Amino acid sequence: MLSLDLLAAPVGSRLDQAVLDDESLTVVLATTAPSSACPLCDFDSSRVHSRYTRRLADLPCFGRAVQLRVAVRRFFCSELQCPRRIFAERLAGFAAPYARTTSLLRETHEAIGCALGGEPGSRLTIRLAIATSPDTLLRRVKQLQHESTPPPRFVGIDDWAWRKGRRYGTIVVDLERGEVVDLLPDREAETVKKWLERHPGVELVTRDRSATYAQAAAEGAPKAQQVADRWHLLKNLREAIERLLERQSDVVDGAIKAAETAANPPPSNPSADPAVEVMGAAESPSPQLPSDQTPVSPSLEAQRARRRRRIERFEQVHERHRQGHSARRIARELGMSRNAVRHYLRCKAPPDWKPGRAWRSRWDKHREWIDARIAEGDTNASYLYRQLTARGFYGSYSSVQRYVRRRLGAAGRKRERVNAAKPSDPPFPSPRKLSFEWVRRPEDRKPNEQRRIDAIRAGSNELATALGLADEFADLLRKRSSGTLSDWLAKGEASSCPEIRRFAEGIRRDEAAVLTAVTETWSNGPVEGHVNRLKTIKRQMYGRAGFRLLMARVVNAA
After folding, report:
1. Domain limits for position 20
2. What's the average model confidence in pLDDT over 64-78?
């Protein structure tokens, strides 16, 4: 009886034999029920027609694959009106008709397929002694029936990309249970509206700032409360601040330069530069060539040529705009994107196309080791090159020689040439970077970031007023303010700053959803998390993620 319970054998079965070898366990069972019901008419019959053996795979036992041989019977149907004269007895709850696996093994395959997909799941089943093919796993996943759940009351909707910029779908998440309810093949308002109409119990819908989803929610669930996502509201506000900083780039750069100069004053005695002091009096620097006669490398010359072309393009955009041409027409005539044209028009001066940033280098993983060797006195480039080669370095000897010279100079072990190029001042942060610095909570900003923000506020009354209004709205979203949305809208719409005014006008058009976002705790955060999981699943399947299979994995995966 214990063995039958472990096998979860059908009621009324008998264990006849068990054979154990090095790789598998074979178990022989026989059914002993006195009668069986016809699957068509449900009439019990006890007249046995014949017997046959079903071979089923089951869950492994002690690391060995389990094979079941179940002796089942065929019966005559005694119901005269039934079209089936002979039927085979069913193993209800143990194995489906015509199946080659038990129900427990099938459920295990479904769980592995949902979690890992085809190829990775198949490799895992081999290790677990329940080997099956990738196609079988995917077929089982696609045949899954979603369990019936209570009708969703609070849902979040968002789009996800089949192919970014070309084709999108819609994901629907039950915010109460934190589970994906459904996937829709597109993000059209009509599709979302029909889904909401099929679920009349929806009481609340969270969404991003998309007008399409706002329209669909208003028409498909007119009684439901809409909630604008706070993250997207903060993102829209940051973009407005970025446009403001672009328009006031001259004032911003001047304020930041003054703040940086005050924080890091230049040396009072230029002759105290150590690069000059180490040179003897006889080693006076030779006069430099004029800038137009200074030889430059071909790559630098190409870089300068590209920048000249960009500046010419910037001037052409502004010249055509002064002539009254629209952004669409300028983009078409100059072969540019409309977003690039709008970006140029927002700037008073050509933007910096090469902001300073630290690039990854092949030396990053060797820098500390080289510095340690230099500190120990090992400055021979040939010796260091052999050691680096043993550590897996694939560069040339000359590159090691140049890098060791640079590290020696950084460590003060080699005098600098007087005519060597002096390090240039770091470029001013772009308006985009400054807007991201602003959007952080004040307690999370670094000292230099806070210094720049304070300098920008002090540089212009318009900037100070606009950033003050933006801070008030951010505090409303973060529930750190006692003010109201209506009061802020009144101040924002009366603002002299066009970026803040346009942002307030957009909030006014979606005021009800934004007010709910400010006063309630619901957000679209869980939906964004499921979108990220959906992307991971889609990319794991290497192009086999058809809509049916993708929906089965996303909706049914735990």
Report:
1. 2-100
2. 91
Say how far apart CA 308 and CA 385 lie, in whole Å.
41
Interval 317-324 mean pLDDT: 92
Quote the radius of gyration of the chain (alpha carbons, Å).
36
Does some domain include residue 122? yes
Q: Would 96 be classed as within a structural domain? A: yes
- Give which of 466, 453, 499 is closest to 255, Cα–Cα: 453
Rounded Cα–Cα distance for residues 313 and 350 (Å): 10
Distance, CA of 312 to CA of 326 (rounded, Å)? 19
Instruction: Classify 254 in phi/psi space as left (phi over 0), alpha (psi -120 to 50) or beta.
Output: alpha
User: Is the pLDDT assigned to residue 543 strictly greater than 70?
Assistant: no
- Helix extents (H) in 482-546: 485-493, 498-509, 511-519, 525-540
DSSP readout, 280-314? -GGGPPPPPPPTTTS---HHHHHHHHHHHHHHHHH
**45 & 88 share domain:** yes
With tokens 């071909």, the residue in question is: 298
Q: Which residue has the tokens 């973060």?
A: 478
Which of 164-178, 255-269, 344-358 has the weakest average pLDDT? 344-358
pLDDT of residue 261: 80
**One domain for residues 128 and 180:** no
Identify the H or E element spanning 459: helix 447-459
Q: What is the pLDDT of residues 181-194, one digit of tens each?
A: 999 999 999 999 99
Residues forming a β-bridge with 433: none
DSSP string, 159-203: EEEEETTTEEEEEEEETTTTEEEEEES---HHHHHHHHHH-TT--
- What phi and psi, each to the nearest 5 degrees, are found at residue 10? -65, 155
SS3 433: helix
**Looking at the structure, do residues 91 and 110 belong to the same domain, yes or no?**
no
Burial of 64 (0-12, 13-18, 19+ CB in 10 A): middle
Q: Looking at the domain assignment, is residue 318 inside a domain?
A: no
Q: Read off the pLDDT of residues 327-361 as tens digits, 9 standing for 90 and up.
A: 999 999 998 998 889 888 988 888 765 555 555 67
Task: Tell me how far apart the 2 most distant CA atoms of the chain are, in Å.
Answer: 122
Task: Check whether residue 84 and residue 43 sit in a common domain.
Answer: yes
Reported as a single tens digit per residue, the pLDDT across 491-534 is 999 999 999 999 999 999 999 999 999 988 888 999 999 999 99
Q: What is the DSSP string of 367-398?
A: HHHHHHHHHHT---HHHHHHHHHHTT--S-HH
Task: Give me the long-range contacts of 91-95 (CB less than 8 A, separation at least 24).
Answer: 91/10, 91/31, 91/54, 92/10, 93/10, 94/8, 94/9, 94/10, 95/54, 95/56, 95/70
Asked if residues 135 and 545 have their Cβ atoms less than 8 Å apart, the reply is: no
User: How many domains are there within the chain?
Assistant: 4
Here the CATH number for the domain that contains residue 527 is 3.30.420.10
Are 469 and 463 spatial neighbours (Cβ–Cβ below 8 Å)?
Answer: no
Residue 112 shares a structural domain with residue 134: yes
Distance CA 531, CA 162 (A): 11
Domain match, 62 and 42 both? yes
Q: Which of 117, 142, 167 is the last residue of a domain?
A: 142
